[in-house]
Design goal:
single chain, alpha+beta, four-stranded antiparallel sheet, three-stranded antiparallel sheet, 14 strands, about 30% helix, globular
């Protein structure tokens, strides 16, 4: 005989059931909100939208001019930039990442003092960057300058040079990684900065494939440049997109945590279900 129960946790429906003495469970998006997979899809679309805007505004230079027309295609003035070896819009500039962004290398934590037991010092290693996860903790004293913030851009400096935005305000960056952060008075958003430097970092990674382990050096980073547009609205647009991406990521992490905590209780009957929460 089939017996089942379901409950919605932060819009992720958990359905647990028993059939002939065996227990099963599966998950699906609730009809009344954004579940894990839906938020993931939204983020994919937001990333695609941001990249398309970047290509229009910072590659083709067809951002809206004062008349709302595409700047370069409508005859907007362009000037040669020697650093980039190409033309850029008149009034724009090119700056070194160290001048336009806040740059901080990771702290040399002692691996011998790492623990899997949570402490007040979650440590972000290269392996954690892509997954936005923390797999080690420390009790070492560490300066607050190594503490990460939401929307920081992290870059791994050994092996594959992973790049990703960070999701929390409590973790600390380990050595052989670097953190880039937008400055409050700059018109350069961290999303734009990522798109500006990613091709150069990827090229460096590909050139290093022939060696045993690729390394990104301080010298390499000091050769990276970003475009500086005088229009703050461009940064505001990218910042709003990134804020939504990070919010969705945080919700996805919470959904996963809630699911993992509740599922064992549902499976062994320790949790009671209020069926008014179900959207069956």
């Amino acid at each position: 005989m089939l017996h089942h129960r379901s409950v919605t946790i932060l819009y992720l429906k958990v359905i647990a059931f028993k059939n002939n003495g065996k227990s099963y469970a599966f998950f699906k998006r609730s009809k009344n909100g954004y579940g894990y997979f839906w938020r993931s899809l939204i983020n994919d679309n937001l990333e695609a939208m941001a990249k398309q805007l970047y290509d229009y505004w910072f590659v083709q230079f067809d951002f809206p001019n004062e008349e709302g027309k595409p700047y370069k295609s409508s005859g907007g003035a362009m000037v040669w930039n020697e650093k980039l070896k190409r033309e850029i819009p008149e009034g724009w500039n090119v700056a070194n990442v160290f001048d336009e962004l806040s740059v901080q290398y990771g702290f040399p934590f002692s691996t011998e003092l790492f623990t899997e037991e949570p402490t007040s010092i979650p440590v972000v290693r290269i392996r954690d960057i892509l997954e936005n996860s923390v797999s080690a903790y420390s009790e070492e004293e560490v300066d607050e300058k190594y503490k990460l913030q939401k929307q920081d851009l992290l870059v791994g400096m050994d092996g594959n040079f992973h790049m990703n935005y960070w999701n929390d305000n409590v973790s600390y960056l380990n050595q052989r990684s670097v953190r880039l952060r937008a400055k409050s008075k700059s018109t350069v958003s961290i999303m734009q900065a990522k798109y500006d430097i990613a091709p150069y970092i990827k090229a460096k990674e590909l050139r290093a494939k022939g060696s045993t382990v690729g390394h990104l050096s301080d010298k390499d980073l000091k050769e990276l440049f970003v475009l500086v547009c005088p229009n703050i609205d461009f940064r505001n647009k990218f910042d709003s997109i990134l804020a939504e991406i990070i919010e969705n990521r945080c919700e996805m992490i919470e959904l996963t945590k809630q699911r993992d905590e509740l599922l064992p209780l549902l499976m062994n009957g320790q949790a009671s279900v209020n069926y008014h929460l179900s959207d069956d």
